[in-house]
């Protein structure tokens, strides 16, 4: 009995001595949804955070049309990210919690001049911040401005950006949700360069909104240029990040009168050695539906479908090849071809690693094979035009 | 058996208990002193005997002594003595007194002893008849409802089993309610309860042993088991533990339960209680021992394993897939009722990163206006709910709904509108409360109810780490428990497939080819 009492006393001491040391009530915490990093005026960096404003959110919940912002932005300067985030506490009454950060915005200017390598260490080291946060570049404006404007446009600006990225990745394939850990991985592995989505603010008759605009291409952690539209899609095809997209084909002499929708795409890269030089084989496999037909064509004819497939293959191949050419000009291997060689042909990689970026990559030979199959025609079989002509 | 139960004309709800709580302690003491004194021998004089009995009963008004005369060659004075309310008056009047008074006994030249034999053989149309000449047995028989026939001039007396009196009629049990299944429940009369079980297992292999426990109350306690299925060591253990009980009073099976438990220092029940004869019968057929106590509808089943508290008799009456799904659901329910509020506390005060962002945002807006910390809020609401529950159980049925309305308004709406607690906390507390009601065994739910507070404290001080530590401790404790030598967590820890057929999952009968290892015989199930 005495022993039991003693044990109970000891056990209760566990609870009392622990003293709730890291207890943090929800209403005493500021939840950061986005971090923005710019170059600072007096110090090296200017870090801004977008914090959820609970009282602003409540008016949203109850459906009231209050103008209260659901997020607020604070910023502070510091010589490194860590210092700056601590400085922010001067201006905010709550302890910041970075566990819900979904967006890391870096200004284009900072990425171009300073590079991103030395910023990311402090961010990744922090145990609260998730490395699955999306990372973006703000094009033509500072990250602080971006966070400020973003807050006005959507309930939680950062969440909007993330959703938008997911959405465009799902259906357009010109941008892909780039995560922090992916960027860090590309920065740390050999024969690979980083790429980050660009965002800008569009002013449409007074209404401002954020739109995704191109992909920022890095070389050795520094922004060197932008790629857009077909080029960026060409890159994402190669990386296997295109989930679904649409391809316009010409048929019967008319321009872009057939649209097909691809899905279930797969990309494989393989490095082979040819005469002591690396060659990259890229194989794209995809399935497709007919999305839209604006031509008099008999879709029930398998020969027509085969013809369309051939055209689509050529179109995708063309897209990829031209994107590779463009990036070879920019001298940035964001495809990770070097990494493929490193993994597939390690001996060869040792030879080419030293001047990979400057010499080998820009002249690298690639072989692109596209294997696309049209599986379905959609709810309609033959095009509307054709049926109308038959009636006449 | 059948005869006696037919004779017992059950009148609904005019229940009276012979063991009512009205003895003053003083009286108990003197009674016990009497017990130790040597009993005076039975006299041959009828009046002395009657006087002795009246004195023993303190001239209680429910002791009926009916004197009359039977006609043999000589007129002989006799008396029938019984305790009013315990004995069945109809039998006494119609079958005994009438019988004896009406006819002239053709018994001349008989000694008194011979006469008694003659009477018992020819004139007493009653089931159990015993000739006695010892006060102790006689009095205890009378207190069981038997009546005594005394003859003047002999020290031998005849006790006749005329047990009767009013009791509640067999009714649907209030606990263990099922949708499909028999509607009968145990009642307060031991004999009826044993009959209810026997009616389900018509087999001489079902053995019944009865003993009296409680020096003051002399309560009948029976153990029932299937001789060929129940392991002998368990039966012996039950018997010896029951024999060791030294209690003044046994007013409910809970008294026995506390005395025969393997481990008293545990919040978990190691004895299964049920109000359903079909559940008791099923347990008997699994090789368990059923302990019935007179005066309560709750019978005890030992040994029991943790898993059994998640099983409901209805599982066996429903289809296998549904039963299995429901069992898993019940386990989930139990966990919710166990860790519901503590998990909420831990997540909101320590592990905010675990909460999905959109949920966090809506939680933030709710918590913005609340003055208390998560833990205080949770404790406040839990205590409020416990008050309501306790009040609801004890309240007269007429006022019950009023309290539940007030409770619903106070807990549900007013406290949120007044800004005392957050709506999310109300949801958590109500889900927990509903879960604790959905746990099939009340006894298990009540232990979860207690441990919930421990978990809440550990969640408030150490977060999820605290919850896990406490759960590990509880798990270790559960594994250390035994119920009559059977490990409490046994079906889960066993590697034998046969033990899992009817544990968490409920396999169809054609897949379960062996009885659970708990039982003595490994005979295949038919």
Produce the secondary structure layout:
The complex is a heterodimer of chains A (392) and B (526).
Chain A: H1 2-18, E1 29-39, E2 45-52, H2 54-61, E3 71-78, H3 81-87, E4 95-97, E5 103-107, H4 108-113, H5 117-125, E6 134-138, H6 143-153, H7 157-171, H8 180-188, E7 195-204, E8 207-219, E9 222-227, H9 229-239, E10 245-251, E11 254-274, E12 277-293, H10 302-330, H11 337-344, H12 346-352, H13 356-360, E13 365-376, H14 384-391
Parallel strand pairs in A: 1-4, 1-5, 5-6, 6-7, 12-13
Antiparallel strand pairs in A: 1-2, 2-3, 7-8, 8-9, 10-11, 11-12
Helix pairs in contact in A: 6-7, 9-10, 11-12
Chain B: H1 2-7, H2 25-36, H3 46-56, E1 63-71, E2 75-83, H4 89-102, H5 112-122, E3 129-132, H6 135-143, E4 147-151, E5 157-160, H7 190-200, E6 206-213, E7 219-226, H8 232-244, H9 253-260, E8 272-274, H10 277-285, E9 289-293, E10 299-302, H11 313-317, H12 320-349, H13 357-367, H14 374-394, H15 400-417, H16 423-438, H17 442-480, E11 482-483, E12 486-487, H18 490-493
Antiparallel strand pairs in B: 1-2, 2-4, 3-5, 4-5, 6-7, 7-9, 8-10, 9-10, 11-12
What is the typical, i.e. mean, pLDDT of chain B?
A: 83
Biggest pleated sheet of chain A:
9 strands, mixed
Secondary-structure element pattern of chain A, one letter each: HEEHEHEEHHEHHHEEEHEEEHHHHEH
* Low-confidence spans of chain A: 57-68
Question: What structural class do you assign from the helix and strand content of chain B?
Answer: alpha+beta
Quote the distance from N terminus to C terminus of chain B: 30 Å
Shape of chain A: globular
Spans of chain B of 5+ residues with little confidence (pLDDT < 50)? 1-34
Radius of gyration of CA atoms of chain B, rounded to a whole number: 29 Å
- How many extended strands of chain B? 12
Please indicate the percent range of residues of chain B in DSSP E strands (runs of 2 or more): 5-15%
What number of structural domains do the residues of chain B give?
3
Broad shape of chain B = elongated
- Output the helix-strand order of chain B: HHHEEHHEHEEHEEHHEHEEHHHHHHHEEH
Oligomeric form of this entry? heterodimer
β content of chain A, as a range?
Answer: 25-35%
InterPro entries (chain A): GerAC_N, Spore_GerAC-like, Spore_GerAC-like_C, Spore_GerAC_C_sf
GO biological process, one term (chain A): spore germination
Keywords (chain A): Germination, Lipoprotein, Membrane, Palmitate, Signal
Subcellular location (chain A): Membrane
């Amino acid at each position: 009995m005495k022993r039991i009492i003693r044990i109970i006393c000891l056990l209760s001491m566990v609870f009392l001595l622990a003293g709730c040391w890291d207890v943090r009530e929800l209403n005493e915490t500021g939840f950061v949804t986005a971090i923005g990093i710019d170059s600072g005026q007096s110090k090296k960096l200017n870090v801004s955070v977008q914090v959820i404003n609970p009282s602003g959110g409540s008016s949203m919940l109850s459906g009231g049309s209050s103008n209260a912002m659901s997020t607020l932005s604070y910023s502070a300067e510091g010589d490194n990210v860590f210092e700056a985030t601590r400085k922010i506490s001067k201006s905010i009454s709550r302890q910041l919690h970075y566990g819900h950060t979904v967006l890391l915005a870096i200004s284009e200017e900072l990425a171009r001049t300073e590079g991103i390598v030395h910023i990311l260490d402090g961010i990744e080291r922090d145990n609260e911040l998730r490395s699955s946060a999306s990372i973006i570049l703000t094009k033509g404006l500072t990250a602080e401005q971006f966070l400020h404007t973003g807050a006005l446009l959507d309930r939680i600006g950062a969440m909007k950006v993330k959703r938008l990225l997911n959405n465009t990745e799902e259906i357009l394939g010109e941008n892909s949700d780039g995560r922090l850990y992916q960027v860090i991985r590309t920065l740390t592995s050999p024969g690979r360069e980083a790429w980050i989505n660009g965002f800008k603010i569009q002013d449409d008759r007074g209404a401002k909104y954020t739109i995704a605009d191109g992909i920022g291409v890095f070389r050795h952690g520094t922004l060197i240029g932008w790629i857009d539209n077909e080029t960026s899609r060409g890159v994402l095809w190669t990386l296997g990040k295109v989930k679904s997209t649409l391809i316009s084909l010409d048929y019967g002499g008319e321009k872009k009168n057939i649209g097909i929708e691809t899905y279930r795409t797969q990309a494989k890269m393989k490095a082979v050695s040819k005469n002591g030089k690396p060659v990259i084989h890229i194989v794209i496999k995809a399935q497709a539906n007919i999305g839209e037909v604006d031509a008099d064509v008999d879709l029930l004819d398998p020969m027509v479908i085969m013809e369309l497939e051939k055209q689509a293959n050529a179109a995708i191949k063309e897209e990829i090849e031209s994107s590779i050419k463009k990036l070879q000009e920019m001298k940035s291997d964001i495809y990770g071809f070097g990494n493929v060689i490193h993994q597939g042909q390690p001996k060869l990689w040792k030879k080419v690693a030293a001047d990979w970026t400057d010499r080998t990559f820009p002249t690298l030979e690639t072989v692109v094979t596209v294997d696309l199959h049209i599986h379905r025609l959609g709810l309609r079989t033959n095009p509307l035009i054709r049926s109308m002509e038959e009636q006449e | 058996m059948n005869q006696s139960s037919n004779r017992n004309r059950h009148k609904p709800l005019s229940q009276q208990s012979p063991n009512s709580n009205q003895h003053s302690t003083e009286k108990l003491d003197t009674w016990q002193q009497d017990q130790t004194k040597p009993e005076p021998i039975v006299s041959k004089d009828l009046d002395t005997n009657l006087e002795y009995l009246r004195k023993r009963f303190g001239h209680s008004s429910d002791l009926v002594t009916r004197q009359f005369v039977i006609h043999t060659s000589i007129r002989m004075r006799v008396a029938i003595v019984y305790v009013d309310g315990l004995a069945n008056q109809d039998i006494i009047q119609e079958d005994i007194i009438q019988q004896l008074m009406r006819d002239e006994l053709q018994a001349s030249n008989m000694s008194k002893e011979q006469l008694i034999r003659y009477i018992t053989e020819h004139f007493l149309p009653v089931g159990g008849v015993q000739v006695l000449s010892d006060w102790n047995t006689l009095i205890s028989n009378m207190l069981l409802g038997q009546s005594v026939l005394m003859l003047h001039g002999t020290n031998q007396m005849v006790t006749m089993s005329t047990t009767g009196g009013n009791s509640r009629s067999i009714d649907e049990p209030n606990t263990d309610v099922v949708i499909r299944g028999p509607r009968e429940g145990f009642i307060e009369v031991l004999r009826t309860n044993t009959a209810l079980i026997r009616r389900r297992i018509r087999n001489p292999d079902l053995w019944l042993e009865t003993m009296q426990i409680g020096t003051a109350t002399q309560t009948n306690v029976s153990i029932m088991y299937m001789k060929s299925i129940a392991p002998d060591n368990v039966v012996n253990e039950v018997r010896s533990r029951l024999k060791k009980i030294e209690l003044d009073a046994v007013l409910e099976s809970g008294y026995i339960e506390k005395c025969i438990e393997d481990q008293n220092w545990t919040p978990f029940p190691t004895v299964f209680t049920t109000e359903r004869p079909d559940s008791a019968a099923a347990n008997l057929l699994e090789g368990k021992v059923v302990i019935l106590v007179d005066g309560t509808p709750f019978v005890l089943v030992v040994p029991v394993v943790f898993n059994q508290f998640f099983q409901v008799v209805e599982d066996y009456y429903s289809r296998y897939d549904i039963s299995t799904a429901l069992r898993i659901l019940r386990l989930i329910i139990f966990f919710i009722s166990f860790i519901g509020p503590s998990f909420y506390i831990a997540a909101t005060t320590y592990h905010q990163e675990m909460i999905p962002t959109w949920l966090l945002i809506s939680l933030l807006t709710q918590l913005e206006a609340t003055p208390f910390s998560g833990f205080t809020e949770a404790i406040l609401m839990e205590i409020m709910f416990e008050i309501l529950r306790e009040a609801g159980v004890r309240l007269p049925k007429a006022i019950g709904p009023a309290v539940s309305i007030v409770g619903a308004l106070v807990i549900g709406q007013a406290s949120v509108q007044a800004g005392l607690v957050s709506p999310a906390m109300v949801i958590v507390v109500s889900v927990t409360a509903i879960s604790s009601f959905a746990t099939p065994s009340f006894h298990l739910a009540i232990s979860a109810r207690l441990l919930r507070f421990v978990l809440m404290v550990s969640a408030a001080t150490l977060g999820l780490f605290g919850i896990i530590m406490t759960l590990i401790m509880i798990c270790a404790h559960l594994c250390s428990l035994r119920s009559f030598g059977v490990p409490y967590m046994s079906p889960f820890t066993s590697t034998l497939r046969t033990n899992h057929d009817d544990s968490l999952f409920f396999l169809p009968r054609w897949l379960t080819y062996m009885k659970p290892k708990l039982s003595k015989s490994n005979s295949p199930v038919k």
